[in-house]
Amino acid sequence: MNFDGTPQEAEFRATARAWIAANAPRQYEEELRKSSLGRTQLKNANILEVAKAWQKKKADAGWACLHWPKDYGGRGSSPIERVIWQQEEGPFGKLSGMFIIGHGMCGPTMMAFAREEHKRSYLPPLASGEKIWCQLFSEPAGGSDVAGLRTRAEKDGDEWVVNGQKIWTSGAHYSDYGILLTRTDPNVAKHKGLTMFFLDMKSRGVEVRPIKQASGASDFNEVYFTNVRIPDHQRLGEVNDGWNVSLTTLMNERMSIGASVSTGFPELFDYCSSLMLDDGPAIEDRAVRSRLANWAVKASGLRYTSMRAISALSKGERPGPENSIGKLVAGSMIQDVATYALDLQGASGVVSGPEDAEVAGRFQAMLLRAPGTRVEGGTDEIMRNIIAERVLGLPGDIRVDKDVPFNKIPTKGRS
Amino acid sequence: MNFDFSDDQKQLRDQARKFLTEKCSPKAVRTVLDGKAPYDKELWKGLAEMGFLGVAIPEDFGGAGAGHLELCVIAEEMGRANAPVPFSSTVYLAAEALLIAGSDAQKKKWLPAIASGEAISTLALFEGKGNPSPKNVKLTAANGVLNGVKKPVADGAIADFAVVAARTGSSGRDGDISLFIVDLKDGGVEVKGLTTLDPTRGQAEITFKDCRAEPVGAPGEGWSILTQVLDRAAVLCAFEQIGGSDRALEMGRDYALDRIAFGRQIGSFQAVKHMLADMYVSATLARSNSYYGAWALSTNAAELPEAAAAARISATQAFQHCAKNNIQVHGGMGFTWEFDCHMYYRRANAMALGLGSLSYWEDQLIDRMRKKNAA
Lengths: 415, 375
Description:
The structure holds 2 protein chains of 2 kinds.
Chain A: H1 7-23, H2 29-34, H3 47-60, H4 79-89, H5 100-113, H6 116-127, E1 133-136, E2 152-156, E3 159-167, E4 177-183, E5 194-200, E6 206-210, E7 221-231, E8 235-236, H7 242-253, H8 265-274, E9 276-277, E10 280-281, H9 286-314, H10 325-344, H11 362-373, H12 380-391
Helix pairs in contact in A: 1-4, 5-6, 5-7, 8-9, 8-10, 9-10, 10-11, 10-12
Chain B: H1 7-23, H2 26-33, H3 41-50, H4 68-80, H5 87-101, H6 104-115, E1 121-124, E2 140-142, E3 145-154, E4 161-167, E5 177-183, E6 189-194, E7 203-212, E8 214-216, H7 222-258, E9 260-261, E10 264-265, H8 270-299, H9 304-330, H10 341-354, H11 358-374
Helix pairs in contact in B: 1-4, 4-7, 5-6, 5-7, 7-8, 7-9, 7-10, 8-9, 9-10, 9-11
């Protein structure tokens, strides 16, 4: 048991570190370091532009999408090299937020199912951040139950005509392309009548409407499709095999091994270390210490769980399912941490404006953004189902709609 | 990075599991639970023969001369089997205290006896309620003679010798405490067994009356040695706790698969599935924290104090959580004497207190994190 890298890993780390030291946008380092959930923005710069410039610089030097093949804009690196890169990139990795869906989900799906000429033309600009991609799966009638989606695609000659509505599409408002899951046969069971495409988000008939979140910000969108025409060569996988294609996408969704999940703990420990309460320093208060200790061991538990997964990668093994707990634990933890930080502020905790609030309102921003982390990318409940079924081997839910043609499934709870 | 046990260590774990599955069935544990024996003598002998008692004791002192990582994997299996033997008090507490502070003569006398299974031993620290603290040590030592009462002392009723924390000064500082070793067969001690939460691991009250004792370590060094011993034991106990957590989780999972209610496996109900998923999460966090503790212990790293406290808290919480909800999954049957669930519930809650309670270790963890940040 040790934390030493192999000589090759050490060499890779040294090369990456030197390149980052020479090329990263250092002027934003402090701000990025201090940004936390609910507040990743730069005061005097447009973060989208800064992020795109950094991504392009990385791509030009061969540091973008490390694990992708070189032909498609990557570096052909091993999984462990990708993890080392993420560790070395540190706070600058926060600039990758808007590329995560494209790089983590759309790219791998294209790689597995697109025609070779499409891979060669679409993947390199995706890797370099020149083009941003989004994923159009969820719908008002299909969130956790993605296969319940209703957006129709109908064949018309060499094209498909799409009508319907997507929702919760992260980054659709700045995306150039998207992968789209549609229903092509409503007369068969819900998983059997789906087909996947990719499309240009500037296509005629695509309308993007930002959703104002409970936090006040707008990271997600509704996307409406009105007679949008997609050429058949942009189909991914076979007709009506879209469910299997989407599984490839979703399996890649949480392949974020080594990427640290945000728990809010370092921020809270920092805050408590300098905070004065009515009867002395917060860090010396027994109740505060007890809460901190409980969160400390969750945060360290996640950190070392991730290290165990990295060790497995390093040995060429596939990491076990233990990594699936990260999002589940961190999501509700950051919400609790933010709530507690405000509690420590007493009545003034209600003030959230960065100019007037405690520590520039970081915990207020965290609190308001936190509910989303427990829903996006699989709700807490779906994550528990996954752990129960895939890790512990418990039976799946009894699915009353499994063998029912899609168009016979009830659509209303109470009428 | 190789943040995992080696293949040899994993093989040792398999070997320990196989051995304990054969020699330490729930039925065997029940012999002690039902009060028919103070501990499982046959199992103790077998553990000595397997070389498990002395796995981390150097060869010069009759041990196998492996290391603490090897001891960790064995500890995990001891916890999984709920073994009714004085392993933790003898191996994690007494032997570690001697390894840290014993003189050559003391090591030669006692460590081979531990490794061979001839001597059961323990640490006598607590005196009634309260957590580890120099001010809670009232038992006095003067001119090599001890006077006072220790309670509870783990496995005190079956121990052959004990390392005893005693007061040798009154300055109000850590340096007031010194350690002694007492041969409990020599007289000057009165031992009374106590009824406790977990009858598979006895506790005793030991009264020392003008009892002759030999110092361990330098005078006034007792508290500093004890702190190290407790940190090491915290990591090793954490491995017992994650072994117990895993077993309790498995029992709950298996029952959820076998039991039919409302015409279906109860494991198909989300209320049950999610409870089991949460147990898995606790157990996984505890395992990862414990691995870090094992690394720090095996390399004697500067991070050990913080790592040990984190492992202690995380593994204590996980074992309590898994043991409690294992009963819940079993429903009424889980609350019977006949089902094994309560053995893990008892062990989990007894272990949560043995080295000092959670609130004590929470406090320790924050102190140690602050110290690290200040450094």
